[in-house]
């Protein structure tokens, strides 16, 4: 007969409250519950002693004020530790947790048996002796083919088993290209890839959030194998439980912990024109002139890669031939009111001036041509190079491409299975980084640009378009985009949920390559567009229009891609101008909506809100909305319903729309609908359905081809209920808003009296829409 070794007991045998922090001891391990606010607690679990290594994304919130507000109680069976907003119950026999809100309603429970597991292992890193350079569509990459293993110490795989509630939805954990909305029933791998952003923030429709304090890859699993959160490599189990009361409240808790979302300059909410790629300053300037000739709005034009000298990949200086006289050319561009964004990379090529400077200072990663962003001296040197050769010439904003910085999935012709791709990322990352820091690089790279520019000027806000993010990166003025996706209707549909879950993770600025980055089909798995004839294909033109319309209601409105031009006039057809006309109309709509958008972005900073969010955030008690992937809230008043299907033979696309509780107006027709019903909506090629909540005020600007600090505004009041709107204005750029240099004008509508009031001195130009009128 086999012998079954007994596990160490998890029964709580000792309880200590030290300086407001609770410690619970068992044979299996020690628990620590540390209050950070009345509604936030840090929970740690270790085998014996705690090892609190510094992590860059967290934590900005002091714990001292909160500790006195938490009270410890005991019963025969449980330990109770809580405040008026959050109560944690620990079962004395099993050590499992339950979390309750201030009214005593259960939020989340752990599995009773072995709820928290730690699996110790020895970690190793490769001292590379064999490294090869491979070329991919994502740039040149280093591949380690051999080397000695170096011990990095002991770590733990951690696993926390959880019982989710019936009709509970989960959101967040970054960006998932699979098109997941509600993460229940899914396996979600949280790591970085070209089209994947891992952020360890999970938000429940029950109003709580869990921020896993890890910088290693992790997995959320919810299937027949179990429901748990697993981390790859940590010195202990560590997470923050937040009872926000609502999903929005959970995001606000995350921001209180990890920092406010920096407000972008107003120009960043206008249109960004980009493609792969412009080849000279003259081409860029002439493109802007054509936008103006056609009366199409543009605020930023973007230079993709290869602006550097020939043969010097990633060098942070302009090509002296094609990008000569940068001061003069960028001054000319600025005189037209357009900003210039430049693609810069973290991997200068060997032999170039930037590389040699890093190498001589010992500031490169050992096994890659990437600078060591973990090192403060390396970050300072990177910014010095940027400042000397780029910023000093007038570059306004940065496109930090390839910021993961590892994308081993692009080394294959055939796409790998999700679990194998996750393992390959770990294997590749462990050759470069300590295993508990595998997801950390993007934060430090973003901090390089943010700190450098903030220390250089206070008159220009940082704008960093980057492909990867992690905990706390919202405070570094980053805009994330969804990577090098392919053009297809299916990809378009999946992008909507990808962006919503990313923003549900606490970072408000996200965008996409309108129309997909890759348009044509190739042998490689990632280059799988449906349109070899690109803009000559009527179906691609229609797809591009629908994608463009959707992007007008994203935090950032940006076109980009390869295989064909992306200027609106590239979609002209002399026999059918409908697609081009639809693009111009959508562009004008974005600029007219800017007062609403900029005010919503201000609330993301001042009130820790979101710009776009799943319907499950706003209507969490309605199970019909919890997994809706193709509708969402844009600000507090607009429900956007993108058209993700082709037109029918009658020239109209048709889709189903769910109207949640309350009254709704079709923004275009002004027709009123009762909520809690499904309706069918038809849309011509120049229309995208948007519904306005009853009791809303929408400020609209007169169309101009550039953003302006102050707009001429008309208010549209969608009556039936009282309404209010806080109209935000500031200098449109610079950091005066951090020091009180801004204004909110509160506009109120009294529906019973049919009266509109404003606490500012603005003259009100408004229109009222009521039921049946």
TrEMBL record:
Residues 262-599 form the Glycoside hydrolase family 31 TIM barrel domain. This is DUF5110 domain-containing protein. PANTHER family: HYDROLASE, PUTATIVE (AFU_ORTHOLOGUE AFUA_1G03140)-RELATED, MALTASE-GLUCOAMYLASE. Residues 713-753 form the DUF5110 domain. Belongs to the glycosyl hydrolase 31 family. Keywords: Glycosidase, Hydrolase. It comes from Candidatus Faeciplasma gallinarum. CDD domains: GH31_N, GH31_xylosidase_XylS. The lineage of its organism: Bacteria, Bacillati, Bacillota, Clostridia, Eubacteriales. It comes from the Bacteria.
């Amino acid at each position: 007969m086999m012998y079954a070794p007994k596990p160490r007991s998890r029964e709580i045998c000792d309880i200590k409250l030290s300086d407001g922090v609770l410690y619970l001891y068992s044979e299996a391990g020690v628990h620590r519950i540390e209050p950070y606010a009345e509604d936030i607690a840090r929970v740690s679990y270790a085998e014996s002693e705690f090892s609190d290594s510094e992590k860059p994304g967290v934590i900005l919130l002091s714990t001292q004020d909160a500790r006195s507000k938490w009270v410890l109680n005991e019963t025969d069976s449980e330990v109770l530790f809580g405040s008026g907003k959050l109560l944690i119950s620990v079962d004395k026999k099993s050590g499992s947790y339950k979390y309750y809100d201030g009214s005593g309603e259960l939020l989340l429970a752990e599995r009773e048996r072995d709820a928290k597991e730690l699996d110790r292992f020895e970690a190793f890193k490769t001292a590379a002796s064999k490294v090869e350079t491979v070329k991919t569509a994502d740039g040149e990459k280093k591949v380690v083919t051999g080397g000695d293993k170096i011990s990095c110490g002991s770590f733990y795989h951690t696993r926390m088993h959880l019982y989710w509630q019936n009709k509970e939805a989960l959101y967040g954990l970054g960006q998932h290209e699979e098109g997941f909305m509600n993460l229940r029933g899914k396996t979600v791998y949280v790591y970085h890839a070209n089209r994947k952003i891992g952020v360890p923030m999970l938000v429940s429709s029950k109003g709580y959030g869990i921020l896993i304090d890890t910088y290693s890859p992790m997995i959320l699993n919810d299937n027949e194998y179990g429901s748990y959160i697993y981390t790859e490599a940590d010195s202990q189990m560590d997470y923050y439980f937040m009872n926000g009361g609502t999903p929005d409240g959970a995001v606000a808790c995350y921001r209180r912990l990890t920092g406010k979302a920096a407000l972008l300059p107003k120009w960043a909410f206008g249109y960004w024109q980009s493609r792969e790629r412009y080849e000279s300053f003259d081409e860029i300037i002439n493109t802007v002139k054509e936008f103006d000739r056609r009366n199409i709005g543009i605020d930023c034009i973007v230079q993709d890669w290869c602006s550097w000298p020939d043969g010097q990949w990633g060098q942070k200086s302009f090509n002296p031939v094609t990008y000569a006289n940068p001061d003069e050319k960028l001054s000319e561009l600025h005189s037209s009111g357009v900003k210039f964004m430049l693609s810069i990379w973290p991997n200068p090529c060997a032999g170039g001036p930037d590389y040699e400077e890093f190498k001589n200072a010992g500031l490169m990663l050992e096994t890659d041509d990437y600078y060591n962003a973990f090192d403060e001296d390396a970050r300072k040197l990177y910014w010095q190079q940027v400042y000397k050769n780029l910023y000093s010439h007038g570059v306004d904003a940065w496109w930090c491409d390839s910021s993961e910085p590892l994308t081993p999935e692009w080394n294959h012709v055939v796409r790998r299975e999700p679990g194998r791709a996750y393992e390959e990322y770990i294997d590749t990352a462990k050759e470069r980084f300590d295993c508990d820091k595998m997801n950390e690089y993007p934060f430090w790279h973003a901090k390089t640009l943010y700190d450098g520019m903030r220390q250089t000027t206070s008159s220009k806000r940082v704008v960093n378009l980057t492909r990867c993010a992690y905990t706390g990166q919202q405070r570094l003025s980053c805009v994330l985009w969804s990577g090098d996706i392919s053009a297809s209707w299916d990809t378009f549909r999946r992008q909507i949920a990808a962006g919503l879950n990313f923003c549900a993770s606490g970072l408000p600025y996200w965008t996409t390559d309108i129309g997909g980055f890759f348009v044509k089909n190739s042998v490689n798995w990632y280059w799988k567009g449906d349109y070899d004839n690109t803009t000559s294909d009527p179906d691609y033109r229609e797809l591009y229009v629908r994608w463009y319309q959707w992007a007008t209601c994203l935090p950032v409105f940006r076109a980009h891609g390869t295989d064909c031009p992306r200027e609106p006039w590239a979609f002209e057809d002399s026999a059918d101008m409908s697609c081009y006309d639809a693009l111009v109309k959508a562009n004008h709509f974005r600029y007219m909506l800017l007062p609403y958008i900029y005010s919503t972005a201000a609330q993301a900073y001042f009130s820790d809100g979101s710009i776009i969010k799943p319907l499950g955030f706003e209507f969490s008690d309605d199970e019909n909305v919890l997994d809706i992937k193709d509708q969402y809230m844009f600000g507090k008043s607009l429900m956007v319903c993108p058209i993700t299907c082709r037109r029918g033979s009658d020239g109209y696309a048709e889709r189903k729309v769910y109207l949640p509780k309350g009254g709704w107006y079709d923004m275009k027709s002004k027709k009123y609908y009762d909520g809690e019903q499904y309706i069918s909506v038809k849309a011509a090629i120049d229309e995208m359905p948007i519904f306005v909540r009853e009791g809303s005020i929408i400020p609209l600007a007169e169309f101009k081809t550039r953003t302006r600090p102050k707009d001429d505004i008309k208010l549209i009041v969608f009556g039936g209920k009282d309404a209010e709107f806080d109209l935000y204005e500031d200098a449109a750029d610079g950091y005066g808003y951090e020091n009180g240099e801004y204004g909110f004008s509160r506009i109120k509508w009294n529906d019973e009296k049919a009266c509109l009031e404003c606490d500012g001195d603005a003259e009100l130009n408004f229109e009222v829409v009521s039921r049946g009128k």
